[in-house]
Amino acid sequence: MNIRLEFYKNILIISPIGELDHFNIEKFRNKEDIQIRRKKPSNIIFDLSRVTFIDSPGIGYILGKYKLCMLSGGKTAFVNVNGNTRKILEISGLLKIIKICPTVDQAILAIEKGGL
């Protein structure tokens, strides 16, 4: 698994590639935490276009980032969610609290306009 982190204004775009599971989360958590502390984004977009699997620690990871955003008054969004990943997000209940946008650009626009 690999992960790409991008920043746009006060938005962190997290793009995991591969399986979002316990083993892989631990590999990139330190790198990500350093970036988050340095840039202090208040909003997060998860681009899930290249995620092949999410397990319960992966769900917990997403939920933890969602809670951080809530504490800072920010928003969280999913983009590019495929069929299998969508089912996992639905079963976990995450889709009740985090909205899906079709693209990163549309999620950025929704966040900037106060939507989501």
Characterise the protein shown here.
This protein is α/β, with parallel strands linked by helices. It is built from 4 helices and 6 strands. Strands 1, 2, 3, 4, 5 and 6 form a 6-stranded mixed β-sheet that branches. The radius of gyration is 13 Å and the shape is globular. The chain starts with a strand and ends with a helix. The mean pLDDT is 90.
Features:
alpha/beta; 116 residues; six-stranded mixed β-sheet; single chain; globular; 4 helices; 29% strand; 46% helix
Structural class: alpha/beta
Query: What is the succession of H and E elements?
Result: EEHEEHEHEH
Overall, the morphology is globular
Count of DSSP-assigned helices: 4
Number of strands: 6
Radius of gyration: 13 Å
Helix content: 40-55%
Strand content: 25-35%
- Biggest pleated-sheet summary: 6 strands, mixed
Subunit organisation of the chains: single chain
**Mean pLDDT score:** 90
Low-confidence stretches: none
